[in-house]
Amino acid sequence: MPTLDVVSQENKKVGSVTLADDVFGVEINYPLVHQVIKAQLAGRRQGTAKNKTKGEIRGGGAKPYKQKGTGNARRGSSRSSLMVGGGSNFGPQPRSYEQSTPKEMMRGALRSALSDRVKAKRVIIVDEFKLPSIKTKAFAEIKAKFNLEKVLIVDEANQNLELSGRNVPKVRILRTEGINVYDVVRHDWLILTKKSVDVVTKRLSTKE
After folding, report:
1. Residue 171: exposed, middle, or buried by beta-carbon count in 10 A (0-12, 13-18, 19+)?
2. Do 172 and 133 have their domain in common?
3. Same domain for 40 and 64?
4. 80 and 119 belong to one structural domain
5. What is residue 123's three-state secondary structure?
6. Lower CB density within 10 Å: C or N end of the chain?
7. Beta strands per DSSP E along the chain
């Protein structure tokens, strides 16, 4: 079982924690991680792109010119897709890009992503974050003690932390229930509080 140091928000060691093998020490399934991330990003697409078809273009009721004698094709409508200003034949229409992903696949991909971060030694366990008030400067001072870039912080509901860090570049703060594969992978570092480790372990553990 992987064992990591537990540090305070001043980045001073205060203890250690043993992580569950079935959550933070599994064999990394890269194809599964890719599939779940792809589904996540697809679900974020708006799907509102739309081109008008011939039947939706205004006008076109009268025949553009007579049937014979002009040397042109025998067009019946000026809204044809072959005419300038006409409708689109196979243009985009509103649709949903969501991909159905079983919950166990999502949990398995998250286990792989967390295990990859532990294996790369890019996980930091913090005892707890205590901010007396909502101050970006106070959060920036805490972040400076760790000297990290592109960091994902996961904690239980902590409003002062969330609001203090929401405008800091290259930092994303999530509650435990919001941790996901894409955000774990796209950030170089992962900071978990002791409480969030317990909750995530309980949520993802395969042991009954």
Report:
1. buried
2. yes
3. no
4. no
5. strand
6. C
7. 3-7, 13-18, 123-126, 151-155, 171-175, 189-193
